[in-house]
Amino acid sequence: MIRHSIRMVGIALTLARYRLDDGLEGAPIRILAGAARLLPWGRRPPADASLSKRLRLALQELGPIYVKFGQILSTRRDLLPPKLADELAKLQDDVEPFDVDAARAIVEEELEAPIDDLFATFENTPLASASIAQVHGAMLKDGSSVVVKIVRPGIERRIRRDVTLIGSLGRLVRRYHPEGERIRPDEVVGEFTRVIEGELDMQSEGANATSIRRNFEGSSDLYIPKIHWDFSASRVLVMERVSGIPVRNTDELRALGVDMEKLARRGIRVFYTQVFRDNLFHADMHPGNILVDASNPDDPTFISLDFGIVASLPPKDLYYIGENFLAIFNREYRRVAELHVEAGWVPADTRIDQLEAAARTVCEPAFTRPLEDVSFAELVINLFSVARKFKLTLQPQLIMLQKTLLNIEGMGRDLYPKINIWDVAKPELESIYRERYGLPRTAQRIGRQLPGMLARSPELPTLIYEYLKLASTGSIRTRIDSDDLEKLSAQVTQHNQRLPGAILASGLLVAAAVLAGYQVGPLWDDISVPAATAALTGLLIGWRTLR
User: Fold this and answer.
1) Dist. CA 33–CA 45, nearest whole Å
2) Which candidate in 4, 250, 257, 500 could, as Cys together with 297 as Cys, close a disulfide (CB 3.0–4.6 Å)?
3) Cα–Cα dist 512/529, whole Å
4) Rounded to whole angstroms, how far apart are CA atoms 428 and 273?
5) CA gap 436, 276 in Å, rounded
6) Cβ–Cβ < 8 Å for 159, 200
């Protein structure tokens, strides 16, 4: 607990040195921030650095997990200003590799066999190293060339610790920042936790890759490497080694005579197919995860890598997001407003005419430009941002969808700047919707569900009778009774009683932070004993107060 508190103090000092306490008026951290900026040690941001740049530099200094958090935070363009999102997107998840002996030991422990029995060759120098895992080249006994992805030793414990700390900082921001309720940092931290826990499980990543590979089997649009399940476990994933040209190397692709327009159109089609046909999409399709097979320049194929972040949408949201896209394509703004209400994204009492006017205000100016100059992804993001004024609520999967759409469109325009996104996306989505929601598919769904409906139908009269019986006796209530109000009053009284103790605990923690910052002696294992004593006392008082 003491080390946890000291680490929290270190994070707070770093944020304070980068002047990231702006807007936290009245919070105890402001006292700490003032003291931190007087300390002689530590890096300082450039005097003219923007808030966005200061945050990026601070996250880089805090370490790999915070870099990962910043990357995921950059996807929340519904909450962040565009400049801040763009700056955080520059964060690079590239860290020093861990020792090859540790990598070999993890493989042998997970697969329960010596390396030499598992592989014909195993490359000691990693091909890539990131915050969660690193990748080594290898060859199986049957001659198959593979890559071995290995989770970093001890990363699970470190992630649990850092996620707890980030959550504490998120609660501070929500409580003291003027825009805390709008930004909802605790929800962002929850989203980060879900994503990073998924990336830690190599079995989950392998299952994602296998599912998408099956969906695109026989397709010339997208190739997914094969997973070797006999050599994979929870912390080790063995995948077919593929070669291709990074999609960002557009000059090399052009030099090889690749049909860039065809490649760009395929990228857009892959996105709509993954989302609306399969409802399983790669949610981290940035250029670093995409190669191009240019062996046939007239028929190039995308190769997708790294399946740690894969998402799907609830069927209801999938339907409504597609209908929204079609309504925007057709400039049917009232339909856009109605769909937001029907989907439950905005309250049921929202004025349709006002939401329609807001949608028109966002979308219509875009149509004054040539369609090849219009970003559909930015249009959707701007529309959702405006809809937040109407208390829009979106699930994290929809945010991932926005981010993926933005990445795919950006990649398409890099490959072929004159591509008309609308010309590709509209007929593709219409075709998928005719197939997915047309009469034949609907009849099939009803046919599959009918036996279960018939099996449950004898229970319906009894259920209806029981419901009416409960309603007639007043057992079904939809109001707040006086008992509920009494409980609420008791909770308010309890809060007021706890307040003095909370203030005292906060003061001791602030004092501990300042003592730790100045390394006030005596020291034990590089830890200030007075700081640790003050922190422990503050935590004890806080625990007894909140118990």
Assistant:
1) 15
2) 257
3) 10
4) 8
5) 8
6) yes
Nearest to 506 by CA among 542, 470, 458, 545: 542
Write down the pLDDT at residue 289.
84
| Mean pLDDT in residue range 526-538 | 65
* CA 8 centroid distance within chain: 24
Query: What sign results for the dihedral spanned by CA atoms 363, 365, 368, 373?
Result: negative
Please give the C-alpha separations between residue 545 and each of 165, 169, 314, 506, 512, in angstroms, as whole numbers: 21, 20, 42, 12, 19
Question: Using omega within 30 degrees of 0 as the cis cutoff, is the peptide bond preceding 46 cis?
Answer: no
Q: How many other CB atoms are there within 10 angstroms of residue 298's CB atom?
A: 8
145: CB partners within 8 A, 6+ apart: 137, 138, 139, 240, 241
Q: Is the pLDDT at 89 greater than 90, yes or no?
A: no
Is residue 284 part of the annotated active site? The answer reads yes
- Hunting for tokens 């307040």 — which residue is that? 499
Tokens of 196: 């990073």
Can you say how many angstroms the Cα of residue 278 is from the centroid of all Cα atoms in its chain?
20
150: nearest Cα among 193, 189, 119, 120: 119
- Marked catalytic residue, from 78, 162, 259, 284: 284
Return all residues near 498 (Cβ < 8 A) that are at least 6 apart: 545, 546
Q: Report pLDDT digits (tens) over 245-266.
A: 999 899 999 999 999 999 999 9
**Could you give the count of Cα atoms lying within 13 Å of 430 in the half-sphere of its Cβ?**
11
Lookup: tokens for 204: 């989950």
> Please, are residues 169 and 186 in contact by the beta-carbon 8 Å criterion?
no
Q: State how beta strands 222-223 and 119-122 pair.
A: unpaired
- Within its chain, how far is the Cα of 446 from the centroid? 35
10 Å CB burial of residue 336 (0-12, 13-18, 19+) is buried
Q: What is the chain's Cα-based Rg?
A: 27
What is residue 365's DSSP assignment?
G
Give CA–CA dist 265/221, Å, rounded: 10
Of 387, 411, 224, 195, the C-alpha closest to 304 is 224
Find all residues with CB under 8 Å of 330, minimum gap 6, and list them: none
Q: How far is CA 45 from CA 33, 54, 95, 344, in A?
A: 15, 6, 22, 44
Cα 362 to the chain's mean position, in Å? 26
Among 68, 51, 84, which Cα is nearest to 192's? Answer: 68
Mean pLDDT of 406-431: 88
Spatial contact of 271 and 282, defined as CB atoms under 8 Å apart: no
Could you tell me the pLDDT band of residue 220, with boundaries at 50, 70 and 90?
Answer: very high
Nearest to 74 by CA among 411, 414, 381, 317: 381
Q: What angle do CA 22, 23, 26 make, to 5 degrees?
A: 110
Task: Give the separation between CA 125 and CA 97, rounded to whole angstroms.
Answer: 9
* Token pair in block for residue 366: 């875009």
Q: Alpha-carbon distance 476 to 3, whole Å?
A: 51
